[in-house]
């Protein structure tokens, strides 16, 4: 695709639609970029537009976030919830800093690996969705601290493109006893420091290769991701409460299989 503006718009919409569902937004963007011939210096475009999706969550949950922040000085519940999010965020900080170069220079450059992880992750989602799990936790703001840390450790698997950050955290929360709705909601909240941190660190690491002429494409992708993500966040909690995650598991398997077939034919 020769038009970079159109490519940025498509990739931004794709980011917003896939960031908060367990299908791997990064995997989808990298694969789409591979097939339409879109390249960005240091893969910065792919990371920066994720911030648009973060702002969508901030907008949807602005009231709840505002109450939590306002209650930090006096409310033990608010401090505990904020602490659980920060605790879950810490493992990603450690692994992200230590493995940043390998992730960006090796893993991000392997469409076959991404497609394979999409398929494997889809199988995991289908299996977990059918397990007779008995939820013990129904409020994302009251997850035990040990549970939050465990979810954070599992989130680190999403450093491998195609695994899915939301997929890893949701499956982790379900395995630790969360119900489907609270698992998705905790994943939303954890996405804010995780993705904002990834954005800031990636921008710092790639400061020498940033192409200022591409700011227009980044702005388009950012805005498209923001709008699309708002629609998904508002829809997702109700959907998974009623239907679970099987749809996303099958989607991953189909997309991964199609990509592997296309790659085997030389595309």
UniProtKB/TrEMBL annotation:
The GO terms this record gives for MF are: undecaprenyl-diphosphatase activity
Q: Give the catalysed reaction(s), semicolon-separated.
A: di-trans,octa-cis-undecaprenyl diphosphate + H2O = di-trans,octa-cis-undecaprenyl phosphate + phosphate + H(+)
For whether the record's keyword set contains NAD, the answer is no
Residues crossing the lipid bilayer are 48-69, 81-100, 112-131, 143-163, 183-204, 216-237, 243-263
In short, the EC number is 3.6.1.27
Task: List the Pfam families hit by this protein, alphabetically.
Answer: BacA
Q: Which UniProt keywords are listed? A: Antibiotic resistance, Cell membrane, Cell shape, Cell wall biogenesis/degradation, Hydrolase, Membrane, Peptidoglycan synthesis, Transmembrane, Transmembrane helix
From the Swiss-Prot or TrEMBL record, state where the protein is found: Cell membrane
Keyword hit for Metal-binding: no
Q: What class of enzyme is it?
A: hydrolase
Topological category with respect to the lipid bilayer: Multi-pass membrane protein
Principal cellular location given in the protein's record: membrane
This protein's superkingdom?
Answer: Bacteria
User: Briefly, what is this protein's role?
Assistant: Catalyzes the dephosphorylation of undecaprenyl diphosphate (UPP). Confers resistance to bacitracin.
Q: Which family does it belong to?
A: Belongs to the UppP family.
Note, other: Bacitracin is thought to be involved in the inhibition of peptidoglycan synthesis by sequestering undecaprenyl diphosphate, thereby reducing the pool of lipid carrier available.
HAMAP family per record = Undec_diphosphatase
Could you identify this protein by its name? Undecaprenyl-diphosphatase
Organism, scientific name: Albidovulum litorale
């Amino acid at each position: 695709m020769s038009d970079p503006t159109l490519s940025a718009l498509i990739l931004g919409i794709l980011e917003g639609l896939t960031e908060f569902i367990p299908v791997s937004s990064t995997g989808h963007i990298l694969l789409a970029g591979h097939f339409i011939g879109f390249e960005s210096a240091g893969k910065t475009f792919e990371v920066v537009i994720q911030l648009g999706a973060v702002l969508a969550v901030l907008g949807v949950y602005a009231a709840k976030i505002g109450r939590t922040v306002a209650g930090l000085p006096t409310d033990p519940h608010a401090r505990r919830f904020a602490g659980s999010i920060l605790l879950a965020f810490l493992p990603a900080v450690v692994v992200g800093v230590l493995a940043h170069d390998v992730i960006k220079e090796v893993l991000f450059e392997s469409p076959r690996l991404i497609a394979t992880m999409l398929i494997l992750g889809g199988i995991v989602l289908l299996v977990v969705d059918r397990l007779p799990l008995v939820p013990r936790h129904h409020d994302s703001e009251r997850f035990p601290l040990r549970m939050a840390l465990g979810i954070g450790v599992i989130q680190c698997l999403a450093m491998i493109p195609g695994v899915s950050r939301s997929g890893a955290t949701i499956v982790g929360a379900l395995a630790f006893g969360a119900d489907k709705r609270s698992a998705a909601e905790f994943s939303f909240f954890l996405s804010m420091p995780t993705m904002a941190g990834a954005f800031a660190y990636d921008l710092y690491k790639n400061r020498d290769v940033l192409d200022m002429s591409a700011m227009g494409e980044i702005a388009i992708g950012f805005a498209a991701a923001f709008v699309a993500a708002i629609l998904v966040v508002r829809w997702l909690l109700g959907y998974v409460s009623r239907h679970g995650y099987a749809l996303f598991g099958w989607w991953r398997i189909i997309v991964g299989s199609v990509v592997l077939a296309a790659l085997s034919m030389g595309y």
